[in-house]
Task: inverse folding
């Protein structure tokens, strides 16, 4: 469902016929909505006309994905260890195997600062994507041709239950030289991609499920299953602020830099808005 604001009226809806939707993503500058379905199909709808395109995998569920910031490609990670980057105009994918067929791809990230993904300009283009898996591995690659930039082990598995899946990732927005990873083991890490090393590791008391890198300053914001939102200075690796109030797991988080606010949704049944001012 798509709701119109501020009237909160239903604007558009689509029935997925009982098949679970694993992720949804807005186009960066058009009324176009993408969604990954549990049957492995990626749907792209024009809103509100409902006209759509479908992008078929190999029937393995797509667990994560988004429409990339160039507006021309979609990236999706699958349960069988595959990643596909779809050219939304030509309906053709670049396919990359990042893990064994028994390892789920839990998160994907991308950053494009150039004119075209497939034909980058000569002006030092930045075109990168990453796939994070349930075994804690991260593969960083070119989304146009699959060229490998780095492989990282970012899970930091604890001795408790061994969970180390990569729940979220984000590139440094200004230059793409760094990648932040969030693990079920409770570790937020900042990686130097060229050196393939962790610059800082920032432990949390529970799993980290969402992260956002502020575009205007050197801060990463994390949402944790302990119910706390934290702000980290990536220059020092120190927590500079935390936001309390939730009494249960945080399930999702968004940041509005224009409004200087963080919005978090929790299993406690509340949505909270925290000021970044």
Result:
């Amino acid at each position: 469902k798509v709701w119109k604001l501020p009237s909160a009226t239903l604007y558009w809806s689509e029935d997925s016929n009982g098949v679970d939707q694993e992720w949804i993503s807005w186009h960066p500058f058009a009324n176009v909505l993408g969604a990954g379905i549990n049957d492995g199909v990626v749907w792209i709808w024009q809103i509100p006309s409902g006209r759509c395109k479908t992008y078929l995998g190999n029937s393995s569920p797509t667990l994560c994905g988004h429409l990339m910031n160039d507006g021309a490609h979609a990236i999706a990670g699958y349960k069988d260890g595959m990643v596909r980057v779809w050219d939304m105009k030509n309906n053709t994918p670049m396919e990359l195997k990042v893990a064994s067929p028994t390892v789920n791809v839990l998160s994907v990230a991308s950053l494009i600062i150039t004119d075209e993904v497939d034909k980058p300009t000569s002006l030092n283009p930045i075109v990168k994507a990453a796939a994070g898996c349930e075994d804690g591995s991260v593969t960083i690659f070119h989304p146009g041709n699959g060229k490998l930039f780095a492989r990282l082990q970012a899970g930091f598995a604890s001795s408790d239950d061994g969970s180390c899946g990569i729940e979220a990732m984000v590139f440094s927005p200004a230059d793409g030289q760094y990648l932040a990873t969030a693990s079920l083991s409770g570790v937020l890490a900042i990686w130097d991609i060229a050196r393939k090393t962790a610059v800082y590791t920032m432990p949390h008391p529970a799993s980290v499920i969402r992260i956002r890198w502020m575009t205007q300053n050197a801060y990463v914001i994390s949402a944790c299953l302990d119910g706390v939102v934290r702000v980290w200075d990536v220059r020092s690796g120190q927590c500079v602020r935390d936001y309390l109030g939730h009494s249960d797991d945080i399930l999702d988080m968004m940041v509005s830099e224009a409004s200087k606010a963080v919005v978090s949704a929790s299993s406690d049944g509340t949505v909270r808005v925290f000021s970044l001012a």
Notes: Residues 114 and 124 are 8 Å apart (CA to CA). The chain has no helices and 25 strands. Residues 115-124 have pLDDT under 50 and may be disordered.
